[in-house]
């Protein structure tokens, strides 16, 4: 069997490094390449600048089978390169507006001769898989609410902080009975009782791609996402800042500093509440090693699935390539992830 050549673009970043670590541990026969703007010190380090297509030649020269995007590619240069050169591609970094643009671009291509996977939903795009596992009768689902517990002590990459800094003043879309409704981050407080000993917390609006994926792709009529910080003080402060329009008078640099704090590591938790006409079900996930570990592990599951050669060419969201049982079982088996259904 030929060795698979996998290129992780943004492989020197926080999530990229963890993906490479987990891949190496689980699949020693994969040949792993790291793409970044700076030249590394091994033969498997490639100089790739997503804004400069002239740097993409090394992808062909090194016979790359699969490109994993862990860095922002706003112009979709790598996506277009992958489609044109019939290379498998998976992206885990796109915020909602960029994801919808990339998805529409890929869907507009007449014939795709590789597998194009969009995996930018929460924590590597595993929410929809967990929903499918928890409530297999998809047509019955009326409402999905996602609640996120985020610790400022967690290791955090730049991209999510920059996304919040750039978009905190802009409205985004949630869905109520299939009606798009414009809301803003850090408003519409709701009290939610978090599992794993966290307890009652005030949670505010957050824009994640699952809003689009669950309503537009999975046809769930009502979808919302809310988040709380580990510090009640910070959570309340963000609410005050938004309601008093203080974010609007801050410079972008100041907002980046505000959202950009990164600790040495802490747990992350998210919970998905699924409502049908007659039942409410909840799936709760805790990653004791934080967000990066959970996102990276989910991404590795997608990579392994893509390289198993059972997947036909086409454009997918990551939950569409697995059976939901596979994802649930993999989470159950992973030492630093706890998952429970109620």
TrEMBL record:
Signal peptide: none
Lineage, opening ranks: Bacteria, Pseudomonadati, Bacteroidota, Flavobacteriia, Flavobacteriales
Coiled-coil residues: none
InterPro entries linked to this entry: NAD(P)-bd_dom_sf
Protein name, UniProt field: Saccharopine dehydrogenase
């Amino acid at each position: 069997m030929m060795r698979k050549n996998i290129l992780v673009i943004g492989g020197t970043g926080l999530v990229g490094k963890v993906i490479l670590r987990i891949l190496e541990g689980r699949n020693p026969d994969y040949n792993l390449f790291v793409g970044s703007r700076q030249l590394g010190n091994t033969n498997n380090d490639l100089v790739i600048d997503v804004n400069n297509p002239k740097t993409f030649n090394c992808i062909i020269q090194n016979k790359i089978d699969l490109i994993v995007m862990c860095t922002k590619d706003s112009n979709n240069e790598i996506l277009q390169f992958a489609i044109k050169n019939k290379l498998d591609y998976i992206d885990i970094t796109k915020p909602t507006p960029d994801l919808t643009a990339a998805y529409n671009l890929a869907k507009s291509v007449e014939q795709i001769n590789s597998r194009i996977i969009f995996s930018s939903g929460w924590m590597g795009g595993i929410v929809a898989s967990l929903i499918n596992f928890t409530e297999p009768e998809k047509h019955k689902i009326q409402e999905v609410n996602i609640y996120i517990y985020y610790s400022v002590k967690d290791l955090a990459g730049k991209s999510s902080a920059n996304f919040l800094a750039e978009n905190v003043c802009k409205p985004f879309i949630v869905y109520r009975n299939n009606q798009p409704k414009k809301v803003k981050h850090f408003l519409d407080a709701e009290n939610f009782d978090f599992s794993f000993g966290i307890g009652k917390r005030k949670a505010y609006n957050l824009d994640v791609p699952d809003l689009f994926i669950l309503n537009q792709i999975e046809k769930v009529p009502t979808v919302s996402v809310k988040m709380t910080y580990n510090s009640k003080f910070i959570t309340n402060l963000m609410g005050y800042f938004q309601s008093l329009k203080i974010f609007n008078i801050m410079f972008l640099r100041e907002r980046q500093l505000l959202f950009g704090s990164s600790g040495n590591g802490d747990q992350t938790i998210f919970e998905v509440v699924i409502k049908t006409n007659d039942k409410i079900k909840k799936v709760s996930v805790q990653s004791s090693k934080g967000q990066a570990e959970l996102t990276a592990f989910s991404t590795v599951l997608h990579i392994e699935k893509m390289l198993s050669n059972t997947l036909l060419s086409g454009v997918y969201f990551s939950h569409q390539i697995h059976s939901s049982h596979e994802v649930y079982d993999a989470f159950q088996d992973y030492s630093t992830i706890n998952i429970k259904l109620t």
